Amino acid sequence: MTNPPRFIVLEGIDGAGKSSQITALVAWLRENRCTVTTCRDPGSTAAGDAIRSILLDRQEVTLVQTAEMLLYMAARAQLVAEIIQPALARGEWVVSDRYLLANIVYQGHAGGLDPEIIRQVGAVATGGLQPDLVLLLDLDLETASRRLSRPLDKLEDRGDEFRKRLHDGYRIEAARQPDRIAVIDATGNIADVATRLRDAVSQRLETGFTS
User: Where are the domains positioned within the chain?
Assistant: First the structure.
């Protein structure tokens, strides 16, 4: 490969279109001769998938915010050790559906925990590994809600005020880390948004890839 391995994360409120855009982005990277590993956080390992079930699917399991945050961190530590670090060491690109920023926004800005404490715990859980680029899909709450055509998980089903705090939290973090977080307009059709993502990757990471 002519480009070094890179770690890219897609973030955004639920309904912003991450799944579709990850598929399109990975296809484009592979067209440009990158070997790509994809993952989701939490998940993608045996331990991570078990924790994901507790966090998102097990309605009978009630967690305080601190316990919820720490479970995410445990899943992420396993993800970094088993999937992300080995892929980067092999010279591959990694594209992840969420990462540490999600905790900072969901349990921090929206959930009431101190974002700075979450950053400190996250540094331990990840061994300090940060993405080269975070692509934040920015979409208004009304449009995002219309796009959610599947049953909601436990996080998604916390109400409109929680979702507003999520939206605001992502924007606060994007303003705080403009060099690492690229805000992508997620309105319009899948192809238009995919073009914006490709442009951001090419410009921010200076890849020289064909679009």
Answer: 7-204
Scored b (16 or more CB within 10 A) or e, 136-175 reads: bbbbeeeebeeeeeeeeebbbebeeeebebbbebbbebbe
Task: For residue 23, give both structure tokens.
Answer: 């598929």
CA nearest to 134, candidates 102, 87, 90: 102
CATH 3.40.50.300 fits 7-204, yes or no: yes
User: What tokens appear for 88 in the block?
Assistant: 């980067």
Q: What are phi and psi of 181, to 5 degrees?
A: -110, 120
The conformation of residue 210, written as its DSSP 8-state character, comes to -
> Which residue from 39, 38, 74 is spatially nearest to 55, judged by alpha carbons?
74
Which residue is associated with the tokens 């998980």? 153
Q: What does the pLDDT look like over 68-126, one tens digit per residue?
A: 999 999 999 999 999 999 999 999 999 999 999 999 999 999 999 999 999 999 999 99
Contacts of 81 (CB under 8 A, 6+ apart): none
- Alpha-carbon distance of 161 to 175, in angstroms, equals 21
Dihedral angle at the C-alpha atoms of 115, 118, 119, 122, nearest 10 degrees? -160
Distance CA 102, CA 134 (A): 11
